[in-house]
């Protein structure tokens, strides 16, 4: 039997993505001070917003899968230690699963799963919840599958896992908002490890690189971070100067650390579409 507190948490997980998307949209239209550091000074069409809203219908899926886990007796650990362990386990599993599954979805055989999300080369608040059903299943079943396997040996806590999901929804939402809320000093401290909205906006605009969800760690280990990320972040936050074009690089040596040149004509083995060609196509549309 699902308790009332569990029901409330499940409702929050199911609806928070949409609530945050509308909140960021309203904040941007109201020109709130929080939204002053625009990353890409380009318009988002109403057609894009409608498409994203239509494909956001799958956003409650994590709550449904969590409900199934509860109904089958999973995640019944109790106490603060179990809560913190579960929160940490969820964060680590999600970061690792997201990075490797994300890179896999950029390969030719699996691109069809990820294509819907990447139709938004200029991200909006609704891009954060616009995914194909298959991609939502890949992301959430991967994370919950690992956690369910761990739960067979160490009893995990539902509220710790749901707490991670709530935190993820906040991070994912502002990570697609196209304005930077972090200060210019961010890179001097926590920004050495954690990502920013600028970080993921560059991934959408350039189609490749910067695959990490919450941290830069795996991108740095595997050489998939854009070298000019910190320069772009400084321009947006320090100089308050947004990027004017999707295909705009800070310095002639800008590249993903693995050696991928942004203007190369040969398709990278890590992507299914040449990023320069994709950006020229989008530029004509916008």
Question: Summary?
Answer:
This protein is mostly helical.
Account of the protein in words:
- The chain has 286 residues and is an all-alpha fold.
- It has one domain.
- Helix content is 52%, strand content 0%.
- It has eleven helices and no strands.
- The protein has helices spanning 4-29, 46-54, 61-71, 80-104, 111-118, 133-151, 158-174, 197-206, 217-221, 229-237, 275-285.
- α1 packs parallel to α7 (158-174).
- The protein is globular, with a radius of gyration of 19 Å.
- The model is unreliable at 258-286 (pLDDT under 50).
Give me the oligomer status. Answer: single chain
Q: What coarse outline follows from CA principal-axis ratios? A: globular
> What percentage of the residues does DSSP assign to strands (E)?
under 5%
- How many distinct domains? 1
Largest sheet: none
- SSE order: HHHHHHHHHHH
* End-to-end distance: 51 Å
Structural class: mainly alpha
- What's the total helix number? 11
| Helix content, binned percent | 40-55%
Please give the radius of gyration in angstroms.
Answer: 19 Å
> Which stretches are low in confidence, meaning pLDDT under 50 for 5 or more residues running?
258-286
What is the strand tally? 0
Query: What is the averaged pLDDT score?
Result: 87
